[in-house]
Specification:
alpha/beta; 10 helices
């Protein structure tokens, strides 16, 4: 798939797409579907998640979400632990993948800290943003997809998911409705303030409709329109160039 010239100038070698939203918004499902689309078009795809994505990050994830003493965790501690896991996955996984030209799909990224710890936990946004920047360096998402669902829907999905797995919700999933109201409003506020990076999709629609809307937005913003047509055109040009090169070689 050929990127538009504007996208190439912006992206460099690779592409980072982050997915955000409240718990139970359907991010993981849509990431899996997008992987299938992009792999069919010949791209190397790397998926990761926050917190986690590396051996160290997964250990931090366990502390944040499942540790027996987690309910005693202060907001500042939570922020720094998320940032530590993020710093590790950026340097160990995301940056190397981007440098070799891969497309990275991240289930959450730095915007989660801005919303969850900054807005929902009421930490000052100045320090939160500074810590975020220190953790990610210059590795920012090229597009951030927010799957938006009402708080009541989010909490109901959390309950159903926990029941299906036979496990109690993790520490973040056990937060109250006021917390998740702040989370939802926080994401919408970020998207309103940065419309060039954010795409907001209604997560109450069917998974098929959500997938199509996400793909349409990515095609328009990153691939200059029709990704399949551009991929086909790029393939034809490559074949023509190879044929021309072969014809130009002197006979031995």
């Amino acid at each position: 798939m050929a990127l538009s010239k504007k996208a190439k100038d912006k992206l460099g070698a690779g592409l980072l797409i982050s997915f955000e939203g409240s718990e139970g918004s359907g991010k993981t499902t849509q990431i899996k579907r997008l992987v299938q689309r992009l792999e069919k078009l010949g791209h190397e795809i790397v998926t990761t998640r926050e917190p986690g994505g590396t051996g160290i990050g997964e250990q931090v994830r366990n502390i944040l979400l499942h540790n027996a003493g987690g309910d005693e965790m202060f907001a500042e501690t939570e922020l720094l632990l998320f940032a530590a896991a993020r710093a590790q996955v950026v340097r160990q996984t995301i940056a190397p993948a981007l440098l070799r030209g891969a497309i990275v799909l991240s289930d959450r990224y730095l915007d989660s800290s801005t919303v969850y710890q900054g807005i929902a936990r009421n930490l000052a946004l100045g320090p939160v943003n500074e810590i975020n920047r220190f953790a990610v360096g210059s590795v920012m998402p090229h597009i951030t997809v927010v799957i938006d669902v009402p708080t009541s829907v989010s909490l109901e999905r959390i309950k159903k998911r926990a029941g299906a797995k036979g496990a109690k919700p993790d520490r973040m999933e056990r937060e109250n409705i006021d917390f998740y109201d702040k989370v939802r409003k926080g994401y919408l506020l970020l998207a309103q303030g940065m419309p060039k990076r954010f795409v907001v999709v209604d997560g109450t629609q069917s998974v098929d409709v959500i997938e199509k809307q996400i793909w349409a937005a990515l095609e328009k913003r990153l691939f200059g329109g029709n990704a399949k047509a551009r991929a086909k055109a790029a393939g034809v040009k490559a074949k023509a160039a190879a044929k021309k090169s072969t014809a130009a070689k002197p006979a031995r």
